[in-house]
Every structure is written in C-alpha cells, then in structure tokens.
Design brief:
The protein is α+β, with helices and mostly antiparallel strands. It has two helices and six strands, in the order αββββββα. It has a two-stranded antiparallel sheet with strand order 1-2. Keywords: Membrane, Signal, Transmembrane, Transmembrane helix.
C-alpha cells in the first residue's frame, strides 16, 4: 500500500514539474534566423460609437466598450469583435451584462438577479468559478481537486508508515 501511495505522489510531482517546465519552455522560443514579419495593414475600426450600454441595446449581444484599434467606445460583441452585418457571431453575453436566462451567458456563468437594481438580471460566475479577465475560470476548482488528491495521498502514506 505504501508503495502505491509513493508512486501516486511521485507521479503527481512529476506531472506538476512537467507542466511548469512546458510553460517556461515556451518563453524561450526565438526568432533568430527568421526574416522579420510583414506588418499587417491597419485595421479599420467598425461598430457603432457609444457612451453607454443602453446605446447598444438595438444590436443583440453587444456592449459599449473600448475598441483596442482606435481607443474609442463602440458597440462590440463578446471578445471585442465588431458585429458583422449587425449581428454577433458569438451569441453569449459576457459577465455583468443584462440577460433573461442562463443559456445567454458565457460558459461558467448564470443569469441571476442583480442585488443593487430590482428586477434586473445580470450574468455572474457560478459558484465554484472565479472571475478572471472577463471570463469564469474553473481553475480554482481544478487546483483545489489536485491539492486534495495530493493531500489525501500524503495522509495515506504517513498513516501506512506508522
């Protein structure tokens, strides 16, 4: 039993080291010996200019946000993409956007009643998800599960040696 616990613990440690090594390895890539990239043509900003989300209400699944191309506020779809022919290709509402049901919200979010404004529903991250970069990240749940497995393996190992 102790051998199995040690094996699981070593495997978990190797997996963690491999994941960290992969992340640092990608930072070492170089462009030595390659020709410089050609600059893409300047993007033409698209989307209706706005000041508030209410001004974007006529275009479904948009919100008033700063366009990275020209730093002007425009009605943009989720992912800061302009609508094409008046429609968004991604028909999900991002966090803190008005909604009517859960299936309108991005992955990991649900449509809940806003506590500050009565009868208004907004997309918020579900329980167990963490808001990060305007998305609902389940990394907290995954990290908690990995930590729990490692801790239980350690406890089993210690109890089997006694």
């Amino acid at each position: 039993m102790a051998g199995v616990c040690c094996l699981v613990l070593v495997f978990s440690g190797c997996f963690l080291i491999h994941a960290l090594a992969d992340q640092s390895r990608t930072k070492r890539l170089t462009t030595f010996g390659k020709s410089p990239p050609t600059n893409p043509p300047d993007k033409i900003p698209k989307g209706k200019e706005c000041r508030t989300d209410e001004e974007c209400a006529t275009i479904d699944f948009t919100a008033c946000r700063v366009d990275k191309i020209d730093n002007k506020k425009r009605c943009l779809c989720f992912g800061n993409e302009p609508p094409i022919n008046g429609e968004c290709t991604n028909k999900r509402r991002e966090l803190h956007s008005k909604c009517n049901s859960d299936n309108e919200c991005i992955y990991g979010a649900e449509c809940t009643v806003n506590s500050t404004v009565s009868n208004e529903k907004l997309c918020y991250c579900r329980e167990g998800y963490v808001e990060e970069n305007k998305t609902c990240n389940e990394g907290f749940m995954r990290n908690a599960a990995i930590s729990l497995i490692a801790l239980s393996t350690l406890v089993l190992f210690i109890s089997s040696t006694n």
